[in-house]
Specification:
This protein folds into two domains: 78 residues, 434 Repressor (Amino-terminal Domain), CATH 1.10.260; 47 residues, no CATH class. Helix content is 68%, strand content 0%. The chain is built from eight helices and no strands. Helix 2 packs across helix 3. The two termini are 40 Å apart.
């Protein structure tokens, strides 16, 4: 399935779960009650429900609040939430007091020293067979 079809299916399901009919007129009315920008048309609501378009992220936020679902779940599905939760759980379980204290000290350093310490840690990790994992792996951050 493609992104638009998957989003449309999730939107329809979220509306049904919240007790609303998955119709363009209901979507248009309920969305416009909560949206402070320019109102959406019935055609836009129809497009969202019928796999023709995916709303912008700010509109997804409004839809998610109305339908009481997480915005990332509405936009990308449950798999994304599970992936993030697994990564967060690994992080929480693997980081004790000493590591947190070290991270706090690291964050107090000026940017050039943080960059140097980061390079040292990544070099040690490569030598000892550990590669960075997770969302920031391989990214460099400029300060």
């Amino acid at each position: 399935m493609n992104e638009k079809i998957e989003f449309s299916n999730r939107l329809r399901q979220a509306m049904a779960d919240a007790g609303y009919a998955a119709s363009p007129s209901v979507l248009e009315q309920e969305f416009n009650l909560r949206w402070y920008g320019r109102s959406i048309s019935n055609q836009a609501a129809w497009n969202w429900l019928n796999s023709k378009a995916v709303p912008t992220q700010d509109k997804i936020q409004v839809l998610a609040e109305w339908l009481k679902v997480e915005p990332e779940v509405l936009r990308f599905g449950e798999a994304v939430r599970h992936s993030v939760q697994e990564y967060r759980q690994r992080w929480d379980e693997g980081v004790g007091y000493l590591e947190r204290e070290t991270f706090d000290a690291f964050l107090q350093l000026p940017a050039p020293q943080r960059k140097l310490i980061r390079e040292v840690i990544l070099t040690f990790a490569q030598v000892h067979g550990g590669a960075p994992r997770g969302p920031a792996a391989g990214e460099t951050r400029q300060k």
